[in-house]
Amino acid sequence: MIHWSLWLLAGALLGGIVHLVAVLILPRTATQDAYTRLTPIAPVNAVAAVPQPAPQNELMPFMDPAFASAVCRYDLSTGPIKLTVPISAAYTSVSFYTRSGVAYYAINDRSAGRRQIELQLMTAAQRAELPEDEDVTAADRLIVESPSGTGLILLRALAPEPGLLPVARGVLGNATCKPDPLAER
Are the beta carbons of 71 and 175 closer than 8 angstroms? Predict the structure, then answer.
């Protein structure tokens, strides 16, 4: 009896190790990550609308149909970018992800406290090169440091009723994500 117990324990331990290794390796070997799926519709450093999800036909899994979504695929190799997102009447959020899908920053309309979310995205090295400007305070300029040179910015606006979805999509259509000439000086 003890002999079978040891075999069962060894099998469970080996199964646990194999499971853990598979869970840790799988995200690095997946070929259809968010960045790859959004590449055909999203040009670099520009905002592109994400198509609304439909049954059996959604670009990204588990998308909420009550939200209008847009994405900016960024590349900071040429310099910082400036993101401007108008605030919708219901709710607006902006989330930042690295190329490998790690979320590193998020902001919504409640915490922005203005009529639009406006910020600069740059790497730590680009931020270190910025001159210290005494006229510009931290409250005037929101700077987000990206841990990687490429990634995704996901913009979402809530449509509390299905009839308001075109309005939410229109708000995101006015968003911009472009190189920031002021930060390059």
Answer: no
What is the tens place of the pLDDT at every residue in 97-151?
998 888 999 999 888 777 888 999 999 888 888 777 655 545 557 889 999 999 9
Structural fold of domain 34-179: Immunoglobulin-like (2.60.40)
SS3 57: strand
What residues are paired with 94 via a beta bridge?
107, 155
Provide the residue ranges of all domains of the chain, joining segments of one domain with +.
Answer: 1-30, 34-179
Model confidence at 30, pLDDT cuts 50, 70, 90, reads low
Lookup: tokens for 96: 């930042």
CB-based contact 126:79 (threshold 8 Å): yes
What are 145-173's pLDDT values in tens digits?
A: 999 999 999 999 999 998 999 999 999 99
Phi, psi (rounded to 5 degrees) for 10: -65, -40
Q: Which amino acid is at 114?
A: R
Sheet containing 81-86, strands listed edge to edge, beginning at the edge strand earlier in sequence: 143-146, 116-123, 81-86, 176-179
Q: How far is residue 84 CA from its own chain's centroid?
A: 15
The CA–CA distances, whole Å, from 153 to 11, 13, 121, 148 equal 44, 40, 10, 13
